[in-house]
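Morning!

This is the sequence you dropped in the shared folder:
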Amino acid sequence: MVKPFVPQLIYVEPKAMEYDLGKTLIDKFSKMGIEIRETTSHNQIRNLPGDNHFQRYRIAKSTLVVGIRKTLKFDTSKPSAEYAIPLATGCMGHCHYCYLQTTMGSKPYIRTYVNVDEIFEQAESYMKERAPEITRFEASCTSDIVGVDHLTHTLKRTIEFFGRSEHGKLRFVTKFAHVDHLLDADHQGQTRFRFSINDDYVIKYFEPGTSRLHERIEAAVKVAEAGYPLGFIVAPIYLHEGWEDGYHEMFEKLEAMLPGFAKKGLTFEMIQHRFTKPAKRVIQENYPMTKLELDEAKRKWKWGRYGIGKYVYQNEEQEDIKKTLGSYIDKYFPEAKIEYFT
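The structure's back. Tokens below.
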């Protein structure tokens, strides 16, 4: 079992200490005996320990920066939500295919933001703009927020903020099973708690440092028992030898472990594996032994956001994925809603 994340090294931005949460976290980490360094800004972090890129990358992935979110303009987050709510950036997992490989670039450390009330005020203004329509906020666009929240509890505060909200809903996704501290949050049914799931092959070879499938499903059962609306993201759907059987076993296991009441109102989102040229370079540098198939010649090129093209599966392969996984969902979860396939 993957243990809850504990950083090896903490950096703190001085302005973070002007907030109660900043003081609380630094006090907590100093009592835990973790080394704490000061930095004027996360961009100024230099000279992480390690003799080579490989070591420095892994230490960076276990480094936490306690700072403030300066940019309060939220990104859009289609197709899952209207906006991304920025609570943290970066992830302690080592998923080979992750798009954060390129967006984080040479700074793969985790950042948590302590100016939570300012973030809430901004969310409130977006909700007012769209009222009386519901505005959905995605909390896991730039991080696996659950992976760090047992330390910070900012996600828990956010769940309760949306529990009090009239026109807002929250959603996030995780690969971690460390959910116990979120079970008593007063969510009022306004937060959809989703788990990223995959077949055993993908988890074994491409998702080191994350909870195993059965652990994620066990956590999903706890979440359903706590009354949260529940969902699953099957991502990335990856075509390997025997993938049809692998994904069939995954859905079979999910159906067997989830109690009947948890299957009501269930949602599924399906995302095929894709990569960009810059991501391929970074992945091969950080995980030189990866088994991940990154051959552009086998893929179809597609325009992505911000004009960066990505490589997806060929049309007939995409149809095969939709048809095959769609049939498994129909078989095991006939009442569930498939929100999208992309």
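Headline: The first strand starts at residue 9 and ends at 12.

More detail when I'm at my desk.
O.
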